[in-house]
Amino acid sequence: MAAPNRGRRPAGAQGKPGRTLVLILIAMVALTGGMFLSGHTTPRLGIDLAGGTTITLKAEAEPGKESAVNETNMNTAVGIIERRVNGLGVSEAEVQTQGRENIIVNIPKGTDSEQARKQVGTTAQLYFRPVVTVAAGGATPQQPPSPAPSASSKDKATDPDKAGDKASPSASGKPSASATAQGRAVTEGLKAPATTSPSPAASSKAADPKATQSPAPAPTPTGAPATTALDKQFATLNCMDAKSRATIGDGAKPENPMVACGSNDGGKNWEKYILGPAELDGKDVEDAKGQMDQQRGIWIVTMDFTKGGAKKFTKITSKLSAQQSPQNQFAIVLDGEVVSAPQVNQTLSANAEISGNFKQQEAQDLGNILSYGALPLSFEEQSVTTVSAALGSEQLKAGLIAGAIGLALVIIYLVAYYRGLAAIAILSLFVSAGLTYSLMALLGPGIGFALNLPAVCGAIVAIGITADSFIVYFERIRDEIREGRTLRPAVERAWPRARRTILVSDFVSFLAAAVLFLVTVGKVQGFAFTLGLTTLLDVVVVFFFTKPLMTIMARTPFFAGGHPWSGLDPKRLGAKPPLRRTRRTSAPTEPKEA
Amino acid sequence: MSRLGSIGVRLYRGEIGYDFVAKRKFWYAVSILITITAIVGLAVRGLNMGIEFKGGAVFSTPAKSNASVSVAQESAQESSGHHAIVQELGNGSLRIQVSELDTASATKVQKQLSTDLNIPVDKIDAELVGPSWGEQIANKAWTGLGIFMVLVVIYLAIAFEWRMAIAALIALIHDLTITVGVYALVGFEVTPGTVIGLLTILGYSLYDTVVVFDGLKEGAVGITKQSQRTYSEVANRSLNATLVRSINTTIVALLPVAGLLFIGGGFLGAGMLNDISLSLFVGLAAGAYSSIFIATPLVADLKEREPQMKALRKRVLAKRAAAHARGDFSDEGDDPSHGDGDDPEPSDGPFDAAPAVAAGPSSPVVGPRGRGRGRSSGRRR
Predict the structure, then answer these.
(1) CB count in 10 Å sphere of residue A286
(2) Which one of A284, A406, B15, B204 has the fewest CB atoms closer than 10 angstroms to its CB?
(3) What is the ipTM of this complex?
(4) Which residue ranges traverse the bilayer (chain B) (predicted)?
């Protein structure tokens, strides 16, 4: 950054200062217009200033595991929920424990509280289990499903490009098993581009090593399930009934086979499954995100496995692919429900995807939830209620009044010291403030950005730092004038060096912002975001507003003539004697910076 | 302006100036003293961590109690001696959070609340509440800080040189220590706002130091090619030349914060504002101070140990002694007649800023080549 030969085109910049000014004005108008069009004319305020919604969650102890509700697990849960509701760190949500078994989640006003409730409440216990049997969802005794023709999807993993083509043939070949039971996502659910995810940190506590060794303990021929108890449970299970759906997966241990329900069409029709022990779990997932599958035009959630997870996944898929349908199906079970049960036709590795009839929001939320891991406990929502601002409006008011007085003092000082130049500084400050404000207002709905009181204070300080850029530039110009130059050459000669200083110092600020944003979570991350934003704006304003404006102003008689009130009066600045000055001015402007 | 302006000119010309570098021992001592005070304060009084970090007690009034938020706040604050966060829930009940209370004082607060709000004691629930700024957040913040410091030192070492990187780091630690120490001494509660304030300072302190170093680097271009000034003198010259900018920037950054602290916090009585703006005020002031009084003299100190600079110092002193012997002692070689030290080809200077300087004698920072000598500029043209 700030290499000396950087931007050797001051000629262009100085030649068309008007154009640059128009550009930034257009940008300002566009941002402001966007602000009004979107109807978000004020930045979203944090919970300390505007209040919001508070959700109280109660940890539910599973029978026989009461001791699971302990401090460690509660704190882990707080950490995970915090990241779920405040993934980018800019939403100002607060999460804390209360009492022994409650977690309080505070979300600032204006957040979609429905969505937030879903995000905080989902346990997100994820398991990958081999399918033993699948049947239509009703309570009727199950028909062994006929094998699903899978020939069509053979080359799938090797040639992802064809995924789209294959969608149709395989769809037809889905577990015709059951006319009623639409085999869900059978073919397309699992996809493995030949890449391996080179991710560190492989942990897989829950996946019992024993289970991993014997991938499919149950895959006895279709219709001969593992245990009779399970069989009975399977026979009586009615997946059409929401209540039994909700409870069926409860308490199933990962190392045991289980019975579960799943729907392929967003909940209209249900199938029931007997599933083998879990082979992988949520901890084997390194990263997950909801994205659009371009070929099929549906929303899916893709998951990258950790190193250990990828290994396990390769092993199990190689075994499964040798099986007959439905035992070559690999069910992805989230919180006791089968969200996807794709067929495995060959050994896969590295990553998988869930295609379960998602809406965009659902896919993104699920990706988000899976990335941050499962809660160690399941929680029940106890209450959702509004909560008033912790600081109250008078604090914000006091802050704004004080800030305004402070800014007025700044303006007075600038006028007193820089006189006419202060007009340029103040205009630049207003442009900077306007850009900051409209961006923050737009980022509220955009990424959930919320301003809390510290951020307001930070923004006020940032204005001071922005002003520093002008001061550096003005001082350079004055120095040039002291050397005996007239204003126009002085403005151009001062710029390359002021620019260097501005870039070097802003780079340090930006470095701080970038590192903190990437590494930290929560409020620190939110701070880093604001710092990065204001630093970038500083550079934008100085380059695209202050400098061109200065160039234009240097052409006006008021400034160029060194009017006593221009702040650039050579006499007051103590410029070199006129004799040398004339010589200087007659000299052609030298290369600005060689 | 005229007065200040003329000071600016004279500072720029080097006609007047404060010898920051020569008096560095004094300012080091001042800083060490302040830092020790801060550390002692920190050790003795400790930081008053807010409920957000430590958790505390939460009292809930029954629904539809219609209790007043301000009364509850006052009551809880007075009986506990800590900040209280009072929020009104949708059902009309109040949630009052107070940091760090033992059981006895929790009961006291509960009773006080009951009297002040006119609600039976047994209707006010008391529970422990965990921190909203948990260890996880704190740990990640520390990791982030560590990584940033390493990166910034590497960057400064490349963009400037390692001596400046180290000096900037020392100045940064100096600023942060002082700010934290002030918190310990004043006893203000440390809230997430304070931490954000500290981070702002971290950014500002480095920013300010870098601006000053940039001037120093420029001033020191081609320093080994002359025998007029030692590195320390050049450093001092650049400091004085950028002094106006430093003062102006500090004033402009401090005025709004002072507004927040003294007007917002003082007169309008906004508690939380005090917490944030105090850290900002102290930190900004310390940051501006350390860039000038600590960081640059430190660089000079380190630089003077370099063999090249030692040689330079020897040359300069020898020359001065000779001049003195002739009875023609020229103070710091500032006399325009002493143009012989000028290097017309400074592009072989140690720094990449050389070309910019070579373009003319326009350096605002008093360079070693004798600044603004018509002669040298004429030569170059």
Answers:
(1) 22
(2) B15
(3) 0.73
(4) 26-44, 141-160, 166-186, 247-270, 276-300
The pLDDT value recorded for residue A588 is: 44
Bond preceding residue B344 cis, omega within 30 of 0 = no
- Beta strands B84-88 and B94-99, pairing class: antiparallel
| Lowest mean per-residue pLDDT among A386-400, B25-39, B187-201 | A386-400
- The model's pTM is 0.68
Rounded (5°) CA angle B349-B242-B9: 110
Residue where the block lists tokens 């993993």: A157
HEC string of B285-320? HHHHHHHHHHHHHHHHHHHCCCHHHHHHHHHHHHHH
Q: What is the pLDDT of residue B166?
A: 92
Residue with tokens 């010898």: B19
CB within 8 Å: B263 and A54 = no
| Pick among 2.60.120.10, 3.20.20.150, 1.20.1640.10, 3.40.630.30: CATH of A10-39+391-586 | 1.20.1640.10
- Judging contacts by C-beta atoms under 8 Å, the chain A residues touching residue B91 are 385
B289 shares a domain with B213: yes
**Out of 3.40.50.300, 2.60.40.10, 3.30.1490.20, 3.30.70.3400, which CATH number does the structure's domain A47-120 have?**
3.30.70.3400
Task: Give the helix ranges, DSSP H, for A98-150.
Answer: 113-121
Residue B3 in contact with partner chain A when CB distance is under 8 A: no
Sign of CA dihedral A546, A552, A553, A559: positive
pLDDT attached to residue A161: 40
Residue B342 located in a structural domain:
no
pLDDT band with cut points at 50, 70 and 90 for residue B338: very low
B69 CB neighbours in chain A (<8 A) are 388, 392
Distance between CA atoms of residues A231 and B196, nearest Å = 59
CB < 8 Å to B155, chain A: 507-508, 511
Spatial separation of the C-alpha atoms in residues B368 and B381, rounded to whole Å? 19
| Interface contact A461-B192, CB threshold 8 A | no
Mean pLDDT throughout B115-132? Answer: 80
Residue A12 has pLDDT above 80, yes or no: no
The most confident of the ranges A108-112, A435-439, B121-125 is A435-439
Query: Which range among A233-242, A485-494, B270-279 has the greatest average pLDDT?
Result: A485-494
- The terminus-to-terminus CA distance of chain B in angstroms comes to 35
Which helix (H) or strand (E) is B166 found in, with range? helix B162-186
Contact A34, A564 (CB under 8 A): no
In this prediction, residues B33-59 reach a mean pLDDT of 85
Residue with tokens 């600005």: A592
Any CB–CB contact under 8 A between B179 and chain A?
Answer: no
Residue of B nearest to A500 (CA): B214
**Mean pLDDT highest for which of A71-80, A351-360, A536-545, A572-581?**
A536-545
pLDDT score, position B29: 92
What is the residue extent of each domain of chain A? 10-39+391-586, 47-120, 125-139+157-371
Residues of A in contact with B135 (CB under 8 A): 75
Q: pLDDT at residue A365 above 80?
A: no
Task: Judge whether residue A403 has pLDDT over 80.
Answer: no
Optimal mutation site among B129, B196, B274, B377, interface A, most CBs of chain A within 10 A: B196
How far apart are alpha carbons A346 and A323 in whole angstroms?
A: 10
Q: Does the pLDDT value for residue A554 go beyond 60?
A: yes
The whole domain housing B93 covers 56-129
CB atoms within 10 A of CB A443: 21
